[in-house]
Amino acid sequence: MSEIKNDQTTTTTPRLKPEGPWKIAWNRFKKNKVALVGGTGFLLIVLGVIVIPMIFSFNLWRTMELDAGTAISSTVLDSLDEKGVEIDEEFEETFFNRFDEVVRQSHFEDFIEQNELDDLYTQEDINQLFAGEAVGTGRIIRETIFVNLRAHGFELENSDQPPSRENWLGTDRQGRDVMFRLFYGGRISLIVGLLSATLTVSLGTVVGGVSGYYGGKLDAFLMRFAEIVQSIPLLPMMISISAAMRWVPSERTLLVVVFVVGILSWPGLARVVRGQILSLREQEFMQATEILGISDVSRIFRHLLPNVLAYIIVSATLGMGGAILLEAGLSFLGLGVQPPMPSWGNMIYLANNSTVFREYLWMWIPPGVMIMLTVVSVNLLGEGLRDALDPKEIR
Amino acid sequence: MLKFIGKRILQLIPTLIAISLLIFIVVDFMPGDYVQSYLGLGSDVTPERQQEIRELLGLDRSMPIRYLSWLGRIVTGDLGRSLVYSDEVSNIIFGFIWNSFLLNFFSLIIALCIAIPVGIKSAVKKYGPFDNFFTVFSLLGVSMPTFFFALLLIFVFAARFEWLPMSGMQTSIMAIRGYPSLWAQIRDVGSHMILPVTVLSLSSLATLTRYTRNSVIEVINQDYIRTARSKGLKEKVVIYKHAFRNALLPLITILGMWIPALFGGAILLETVFIWPGIGRVLLRGIRNQDLSLVMATLVFYGVLRVLGNLLADISYGIADPRVRVK
Predict the structure, then answer these.
(1) Whole-angstrom distance, CA of residue A373 vs CA of residue B281
(2) Which of A270, A329, B4, B87 could link A207 by a cystine bridge, Cβ 3.0 to 4.6 Å?
(3) What secondary structure letter does DSSP report for B88?
(4) Phi-psi region of A164 (alpha: psi -120 to 50; beta: other; left: phi over 0)
């Protein structure tokens, strides 16, 4: 259609070049200062999230796969094993739990001094274990632990440090750089947002498109279904589904969040798409496609959907903001993305500890601010796109 | 009218059944074994005996049968027994509902009292400084994670300056010793409510202001408003009597859906403020694998949501006769 238009205009009035709908939208978007601010802000955040973690030492990257507790427990258990100490399951479990607890609170000195290891294993056993060394058992264990932790990228002696020249945003409970985690966590949060929005939009578009295009009983059924999904209490159900999916390994918990957000938030878009397609279906150009004998697939995807694309894009953008907020909420409750993988939500989770909340502000305020900045810019972008892509607006 | 209401209520039944099925399936997939968590850790009951208990409770039967029997019990009002609270689930839910209700009720009232006048004023002077200010305000309000905002407020007002209590609903010493007077109790609970109510009402305010504004703007552009103006009516009468009344329609629908959303969203705030509400009951149930408690709480949220929708539909039907005919 645009080709024909082009031909006509170039022959009759060469001055007037018709603009395609995308060009018009882009021009309008450029004029919209608010949208530009949002778009630029969002781009900057995306860039930061991609580039900034790369600046940090490779060592830190390993801390994304392991907790300090897990790292220690496994290495210490390994070294016990090497020394030929028999490790039964019960011992392993207590050992793991205790160490994890100790590392989280970074009370190494207390831990060793109080010789809490006595409860786990007799002093004799431990002495035997490290026999031949002049220094006390505690120190050996301690050093083994620190060496092993450093190999895993943790600097526990450097934990809970306020912002300084080396660590611009300080360090966290396990001695990791907060700025690194903030931007690496940003990757996770943004990916969750992006994937959730994609899932929501795909489901919404397909259901709405099929419903509007085919109509009849299928339409009635699908819309009834959408209504039911809409009557599900959102947050309580998300919390419960996440809890029911605890068996997912921690590095994949972000997919759980995506799934939970995606399957519950599509009905809104589905209804809009359906309504649009319902009215478009009756228009002349669709009758033309029918006469021309164009296939269903092509009619839906080439002729109908481009007309509702504006709604889809806007809803994807706004949906992404919503998904980022939901991820933050779920992770804050401990039911979203699981540590050691950082996300903005599970970084704020640290504020549940009263010492962190009162004294280590650098651990929980930056992620909150980042969430806000991201969601504000995404929302501004969405509003701007809505204005720019609205075909009904006066040009 | 009655026919309309009756039809809507009948339509609820499949929705409620679908939601209850979903709740049952989700909870069934939750980790944890009912019998084991009932007996507690380290109990010396043999696996054979456990199996017997399971059979006794009907837990070994197939899922559809368990679902049907659970549904039957729920409908007759038997919500089961909670392991964590060691009490009837219905008692617990009714005990905690009021705390949540208190929070949500005040927040909603405050939010509405501000949102409606602000929304109208923004709509009348569209794109004026007042409107622009509130546009930015609601944008920030919608984009701020409520729990983070709550943490910030607690930090400033409770941790730093100690003007307000940090969390909870009552000062524990006072609650244990008993309040000297009703007035003292109201004051104590009130001071605990200030922060959570502020956060909740601000977050509702952001959305409700936008809705009011947009729906008033839509009405103001209608022909009958022009007619009213050209009749020489005072601007106040035009706006409040003619425009606002009609703008109220979409607002009613929003409210029907907003109340359940408010309860749901309050889960995060109840966690932050350690407010003894229904959201904390749900979370506690999940953490302790108290499945009957989790199911009952979810049913409560589901019913609330469905009733909210029904209320919206019915009040819309009362306010706008055209809806009834459809």
Answers:
(1) 32
(2) A270
(3) E
(4) beta
Task: Tell me the CATH number of domain A178-389, given options 1.10.1040.50, 3.60.10.10, 1.10.3720.10, 1.10.260.40.
Answer: 1.10.3720.10
pLDDT, one tens digit per residue, over A229-273 is: 988 888 999 999 998 888 888 778 889 999 999 999 999 899 989
First to last CA, chain B: 12
State ipTM: 0.88
Contact call for residues A357 and B151 (beta carbons, < 8 A): yes
Tokens 């054979």 correspond to what residue? B48
Contact status, residue A255 vs residue A323, Cβ threshold 8 Å? no
Q: Which amino acid would we find at residue B60?
A: D
CATH number listed for the domain at residues B98-292: 1.10.3720.10
Task: Provide the β-strand partners of residue B88.
Answer: B81
- Burial (CB < 10 A; 0-12, 13-18, 19+), residue B147, is buried
- How many Cβ pairs closer than 8 A exist between chain A and B? 119
**If you write DSSP's letter for every residue of A33-73 in order, what string do you get?**
HHHHHHHHHHHHHHHHHHHHHHHS-HHHHHTTT--HHHHHH
Write the residue in B31, B139, B306 that is nearest to A231 by C-beta: B306
Residues 327-366 of A with CB under 8 A from B: 328-329, 332-333, 335, 348, 351, 357-358, 361, 364-365
pLDDT tens digits, one per residue of B54-71 = 777 777 778 888 888 888
Token output for B116: 């409606």
Hey, where are the domains in chain B?
Answer: 98-292
Q: Where are the domains of chain A?
A: 62-158, 178-389
Report whether A230 contacts A267 (CB < 8 A).
yes
Q: Which residues contact A210 (CB under 8 A, 6 or more apart)?
A: A218, A222
pTM of the prediction? Answer: 0.84
**Residue B212 near residue B123 (C-beta atoms within 8 A):** yes
Q: Which residues in A lie closer than 8 A to residue B279 (C-beta atoms)?
A: 236
CB of A13 within 8 Å of a chain B CB? The answer is no
